[in-house]
Design goal:
The complex is a heterodimer of chains A (about 600) and B (about 375). Chain A has about 600 residues and is α+β, with helices and mostly antiparallel strands. Among the domains of chain A are: about 15-205, Heat Shock Protein 90; about 210-335, Ribosomal Protein S5, domain 2 (2-Layer Sandwich), CATH 3.30.230.10; about 450-495 and about 505-540, MutL, C-terminal domain, regulatory subdomain (Ribosomal Protein S8, Chain: A, domain 1), CATH 3.30.1370. Chain A is built from 16 helices and 23 strands. Chain A has helices spanning about 15-25, 30-40, 70-75, 105-110, 160-165, 170-185, 210-215, 220-225, 265-275, 315-330, 430-445, 465-480, 505-515, 525-540, 550-560, 580-585, and strands at about 45-55, 60-65, 115-120, 125-130, 135-145, 145-150, 190-195, 200-205, 225-230, 235-240, 255-260, 260, 290-295, 300, 310, 335-340, 410, 415-420, 420-425, 450-460, 485, 490-495, 575-580. The longest helix of chain A is centred in the C-terminal third of the chain and has 19 residues, at about 430-445. Chain B contains 7 helices and 26 strands. In chain B, the strands form 4 sheets. Chain B has a 9-stranded antiparallel sheet with strand order 14-11-12-13-26-25-24-18-22. In chain B, α1 runs antiparallel to α2 (about 70-80), α3 (about 130-140) crosses α4 and α6 (about 260-270) packs antiparallel against α7. Classes of the chains: A alpha+beta (about 600), B alpha+beta (about 375). The interface of A and B includes residues 385, 451 and 481 of A.
């Protein structure tokens, strides 16, 4: 057995080192596209054209109308760690440009044929040709202001990489992802893309996220999304999210930008999704597009070479802020299901985003723009009478300070009213369920339940599974206001009951709740609370088919408006459906 | 059918009957009034199938006959007619003409056969009760019936008729009202009936206080009759809950309070009490009743009232609306409240009531949290 002499350690030649480093930045054509577009944006481009051939395996060309470079800079730009974006390590804190590491061009150059055309002004420009990291020639040319970088034969000298490239369609899809995300981040920039010479995407500069989304995915899609706009502390959360009633009906998309930089962050996405809890069925995920703006020094973007991830100095408050902001958007009556396309003009136009500006806390509205919800949400809660569900006829009418539109009951199931944007239908059972759910959740958490003693205690005979369900949740039932004695075997005596509304039927409620909870083994305390509150709310709520008096409808309307998530019931169904004038007009052939 | 009737008599008859006509119905003929012309005069009847009201008014009948006419339209016409005799004549089975002065109407109706038959109640074995006594029981108890549909028994008023006395009881399971009074023996057998409050309301509305009513029970109907007017109602079937058992006998804490002052204090407290539960706290001490109420997100309130109280101090919670409601019906200036414990029934009775009747209300407490 012969022992080979151990290999000697040697410093790698710079070409090899560059290729290794290139692997971190440039892994596939889409990363080239990303780096080049970022450079273009950092150069202050207002228009970016991308041309792709063969999924980027053949050629990638990105042109911009940015500031361009002088001949000397053009040559220097291909060197490693050459950058105009930072000067010292201190600049890394709060860096606002997309790039700053000075690696991208050098890395790309080392694994491809590269042509760089650039001109700081219209007229005299420079053409640099390079291959495999070596500059082949530099010549003067005439061109418009801006820079065009053309990368061809990517990975021609890195067979290991080349082997791992996917088919051209797959690479093209990855490129589209990257361009889409850049286009959403910088909505003020015109973007056009061609693939094998065919125009694929042409996005004009847009003032709002909604306009940009409409250009990418279509107006119908963009029109259905809900506005999020909220400032909590130094965090500004803006964007668009899907209506809960639409969740699961189309491809789920998630886009997140932090301080104008597209990032992936499961924590933030999870926080946004948490706001949907109890409004959508488990297992489906909502589409979200969020711009998060935090103080520039609260976030570290220098974590990952591709900068797809960022690190926050303080993650918890941020996630809570995001959950609150999204919940607030879902909490408007607007968040209900719509039939037909909703009005665009409904959304107040917002100024073009200044994606790279740091947060100016003073300038941010503490309340966000007025969403013009169906309910003019007043922050002045003290002026409003407390919600009174289905007030008995003898109760004094609610104070006239609240504007409740005239309500009509349809089919003994829905309440209908007219609104500026159309006709709104509220499902009375779902609505009451939501009202009671939030009240019961509060009750479970505070344990503050009024219990009305019964003159004639009710006797319930239960099956074994139901008694087991009762024993498990006994304490929670008591917190809700039931006083229940076991009476040996499977017999219960109910001595006191809560009185959530005058039509409440406690016997049926207990019986049906226990039947529904049978076999339920949710372990977490919060989950059990939610489950019980939802079940009791469902069973205690007025049903479809119950005739409501005008007073009861008023009270329900007010109570629903005061809930956190009025537009959705606890099963994820819609509580509110809007039929827009647009849709009605269309059906009558008026437009 | 042809008759002439004074405008006033027609209005009077219609006013008695139209209240029994259902506002919405699936059976078209129920929206109509049955008009029968007999030798004695005309008889007007209406029903919603639960309650039927029929009344006779004097008229000059030329030919007898019967027809049904839309109740609402006929009442509206009667209200607007000029002061002159009204001539009504049937034209065929389903149309009438109505003439009054220079006014002329033709109204479409429905044949008499479509009108439902009246419940079969025989008045040969009947109780005779002064309507004033009946109305007194009704107005002190029927407010307490349940409006919730899950226990139909509690939607009615229990009426116990005994040879020497009669009693009415109503409850919704949270509070109860009971009144009884002696009556003269009438010979009819003792009976317990559960009567819909809607029917009792008609009794109160239709019969003057000093009329002697004949009351008889059919299969599952009850009939009330005065010489001209009769009311029939379906009875609610089933055993009434054993209310005697829940009326406390050993309440050993007693407070006597001024009814008006207690009412005012409670009304002040309800302003701050939760809209949902109306819960207030009452603390009884020797000579003093303290009220307090705290509602999250709203505020709190306190009040005091001098009362005559005997027994150990007591803290108890109530739905203030239930107390206020009961106090409205207490016929005396002072009210006597009795208690046992914070989770046991409280009673309210008139204090110093010189009346042959006796009245007791019972209110179940609300749980207090400390």
């Amino acid at each position: 057995m012969s022992v080979a002499s151990p290999p000697r350690i040697a410093v790698l030649p710079s070409a090899v080192a560059d290729q290794i480093a290139a692997g971190e930045v440039v892994e596939r054509p889409s990363s080239v596209v990303k780096e080049l577009i970022e450079n273009a944006l950092d150069a202050g481009a207002s228009s970016v054209d991308v041309a792709i051939e063969d999924g980027g395996r053949q050629t990638i060309r990105v042109s911009d109308d940015g500031c361009g470079m002088s001949p000397d800079d053009a040559v220097l730009a291909l060197e490693r760690h050459a950058t105009s974006k930072i000067r010292s390590a201190a600049d890394l804190v709060g860096v606002r440009s997309f790039g700053f590491r000075g690696e991208a061009l050098a890395a790309m150059c080392s694994v491809s044929h590269l042509e760089l055309e650039t001109a700081p002004d219209d007229g005299a420009g420079t053409l640099v040709r390079a291959a495999g990291g070596a500059i082949l020639d530099v010549s003067p040319i005439a061109r418009r202001r801006g820079t065009t970088v053309r990368i061809s034969r990517l990975f021609y000298n890195a067979p290991a990489r080349l082997k791992f490239l996917r088919g051209s369609r797959s690479e093209w899809r990855a490129i589209v992802e990257v361009i889409g995300s850049m286009a959403l981040t910088r909505r003020d920039v015109r973007v056009s893309v061609t693939n094998d010479g065919k125009p694929m995407l042409s996005l004009p500069a847009s003032a709002t996220l909604r306009e940009r989304l409409a250009a990418i995915y279509g107006g119908a899609f963009a029109g259905r999304l809900l506005d999020v706009d909220d400032v909590i502390g130094t965090t500004h959360v803006a964007g668009l999210v899907e209506r809960p009633s639409d969740v699961g009906t189309a491809t789920r998309r998630a886009f997140l930008s932090v301080n104008g930089r597209a990032v992936r962050d499961t924590g933030i996405v999870r926080a946004a999704e948490a706001a949907y809890r109890s409004t959508i069925p488990a297992g489906v995920r909502p589409t979200i597009f969020l711009d998060v703006t935090v103080a520039a020094d609260a976030v570290d973007v220098n974590v990952h070479p591709a900068k797809a991830e960022v690190r926050f100095r303080d993650r918890w408050p941020l996630e809570r802020a995001i959950e609150n902001a999204v919940a607030r958007a879902l909490g408007t009556f607007d968040a209900g299901a719509t039939l037909g396309r909703s009005h665009w003009t409904f959304v107040p136009p917002s100024p073009p985003p200044q994606a790279l500006a740091p947060v100016d806390v003073e300038a941010l509205h503490p309340d966000g723009p007025d969403l013009e919800g169906l309910f003019e949400i007043s922050n002045n809660d003290t002026l409003e009478p407390p919600p009174s569900p289905a007030a008995p006829a003898s109760a004094p009418p609610p104070a006239p300070t609240t504007d409740v539109p005239p309500l009509t009951q349809l089919h003994r199931t829905y309440m209908l009213f007219e609104h500026e944007q159309g006709v709104v239908l509220i499902d009375q059972h779902s609505a009451h369920e939501r009202v009671l759910y939030e009240r019961f959740m509060g009750t479970l958490e505070r344990g503050e339940a009024p219990a009305q003693r019964l003159l004639f205690p009710m006797t319930l005979h239960l099956g074994p599974a139901e008694s087991e369900a009762f024993e498990r949740d006994r304490e929670l039932f008591e917190r809700l206001g039931f006083e229940i004695d076991g009476f040996g075997g499977h017999t219960l005596i109910v001595r006191a009951v809560p009185m959530p509304h005058p039509r409440f039927d406690p016997e049926r409620c207990v019986r049906e709740t226990l039947a529904a909870l049978t076999g339920d083994r949710d372990a977490g305390v919060h989950a059990r609370h939610e489950r019980l509150a939802a079940t009791v709310a469902c069973k205690a709520a007025i049903k479809g088919g119950d005739l409501l008096s005008p007073g009861e409808m008023r009270a329900l309307y007010i109570a629903l408006r005061d809930t956190k998530l009025p537009a959705h019931d606890v099963h994820g169904r819609a509580t509110i459906v809007q039929l827009t004038w647009d849709e009605i007009d269309r059906r009558f052939g008026r437009r | 059918m042809r008759f002439t009737i004074s405008r006033e008599k027609l209005q009077e008859g219609l006013a008695a009957v139209t209240a029994s006509i259902p506002a919405k119905t699936t059976l078209p003929v129920l929206a109509n009034i049955l008009v029968e012309a007999t030798e004695k005069g005309i008889r007007l009847s209406g029903t919603d199938l639960d309650i039927a009201v029929t009344t006779e008014v004097a008229a000059d009948v030329e030919t007898t006959g019967a027809i049904t006419i839309p109740a609402k339209k006929l009442s509206e016409i009667a209200r607007e007619l000029p002061p002159a005799p009204v001539r009504i004549a049937a034209v065929g089975e389903q149309r009438i003409t109505l003439d009054c002065g220079r006014s002329h109407f033709k109204i479409l109706g429905l044949p008499r056969d479509e009108f439902p038959a009246f419940p079969n109640v025989k008045f040969n074995e009947s109780w005779r009760i002064r309507s004033g006594d009946l109305i007194k029981l009704i107005s002190h108890t029927s407010f307490a019936v349940s409006t919730e549909e899950s226990r139909p028994i509690l939607n009615g008023v229990l009426w116990e008729l005994r040879p020497e006395m009669m009693r009415m009881v109503a409850t919704n399971g949270h509070r109860l009202a009971k009144m009884e009074m002696p009556i003269k023996s009438t010979g009819a057998p003792a009976s317990d009936m559960i009567v819909p409050p809607k029917a009792l309301e008609q009794i109160r509305r239709l019969f003057p206080e000093d009329e002697e009513l004949e009351i008889a029970k059919g299969e599952n109907h009850l009939g009330f009759r005065s010489p001209f007017t009769a009311v029939f109602t379906r009875l609610i079937e089933g055993p009434y809950p054993p209310y005697e058992q829940v009326i406390p006998k050993d309440n050993n804490r007693v407070a006597i309070a001024d009814r008006t002052a207690l009412t005012s204090a409670l009304r002040r407290m309800t302003i701050i009490a939760s809209d949902q539960t109306h819960r207030i706290r009452m603390s009884f001490n020797a000579g003093m009743l303290k009220f307090s109420v705290q509602t999250p997100d709203l505020g709190e309130a306190n009040d005091e009232l001098a009362v005559r109280y005997t027994g150990d101090p007591l803290d108890i919670g109530f739905n203030a609306n239930y107390l206020l409601e009961v106090l409205r019906y207490i016929p005396t200036d002072e009210v006597r409240l009795t208690f046992k414990a914070p989770e046991r029934a409280a009673t309210l009775e008139p204090e110093g009531w010189a009346d042959p009747a006796s009245y007791l209300c019972l209110v179940m407490p609300l749980r207090l949290l400390d």
